[in-house]
Amino acid sequence: MSRLQTRYDALRTADKKAVVPYIVAGDPSVGATVPLMHRLVAAGADVLELGVPFSDPMSEGPVIQLGHERALENGVSLRGVLAMVSAFREEDTETPVVVMGYANPVERMGHEAFADACASAGVDGVITVDLPPEEVDGLNEHLIRVGIDNIFLISPTTPDERISTIVSRASGFIYYVAVKGVTGAGNLDVADVRHHLGLIRAVSSLPVAVGFGIKDAASASNVAAIADGVVVGSALIDTIAQGIANGDTEAAAIDKAVALLTDIRAGVNKVASAP
């Protein structure tokens, strides 16, 4: 049983919802990434998503795009990201870690080598944003071989008939994109999210985590009431970046992001414990 399944099963048994922070590996610095991962877990993260820096992150809004740019300037590569996961595993062997990125670095490494490197590092799941389900069988063969989950995005614009195609190739959980457009864009329409989660759950028993548009405890609480988990990325990355831009030390800026995740965890817990 994978760490992701174990974690989601435990949360379901406890009537709790997952909090899933996303950060870009190497932002704000290489040295800060692994300590930040540990601090996010201490603040209530159930699953960690670690972004692999890429030069053309087409699905990301300006906040995360800048995070990718800073990480690339810091010299972070796919292998560097996996080295960070390995370092994290030296102290934490239980928290699931998902690496989220784009197909080009994976294709350059090769499916077999990528899967083996992820398994060696302690990765539990992979999200390849721009790899359609019709083209994933080659990668899936090797991810399945090493026991790593392949996680897919479903958006408000995904045709109903395509949802079945996507979930047939997915494992771990489904990542539902709550708003149209790029990360950090738009406002959440909870009724629309509920409708689409119903479509997904009609054809899949996998947990569904909702991201894009989760900015604070209130938005996280609203989504946690109907989803199995909430994903927060832009808000954390922007908190750190704005803190540093306003003169905070890196450590102080990270403190603010951790405080934000703590608030989000509290908001999610209120929903999960409600009668």
The residue fraction in helices comes out at 40-55%
General shape: globular
| Alpha-carbon distance between the two ends | 31 Å
Number of helices: 12
Number of strands: 8
Kindly report the spatial arrangement of strands forming the biggest sheet: 1-2-3-4-5-6-7-8
Descriptive labels:
275 residues; alpha/beta; eight-stranded parallel beta barrel; 8 strands
Structure explained in plain terms:
The protein contains twelve helices and eight strands. It has helices at 3-13, 30-42, 62-73, 78-89, 103-109, 111-121, 137-145, 160-169, 190-201, 217-224, 234-245, 250-272, and strands at 18-24, 48-51, 97-101, 125-128, 149-154, 174-177, 208-211, 229-232. The protein has an eight-stranded parallel barrel, surrounded by nine helices. Helix 2 (30-42) crosses helix 4 and helix 11 (234-245) packs antiparallel against helix 12 (250-272). It is globular, with a radius of gyration of 17 Å. The two termini are 31 Å apart.
Sequence-ordered SSE layout with sheet pairings:
Blueprint: H1 3-13, E1 18-24, H2 30-42, E2 48-51, H3 62-73, H4 78-89, E3 97-101, H5 103-109, H6 111-121, E4 125-128, H7 137-145, E5 149-154, H8 160-169, E6 174-177, H9 190-201, E7 208-211, H10 217-224, E8 229-232, H11 234-245, H12 250-272
Parallel strand pairs: 1-2, 1-8, 2-3, 3-4, 4-5, 5-6, 6-7, 7-8
Helix pairs in contact: 2-4, 2-12, 4-6, 6-7, 10-12, 11-12
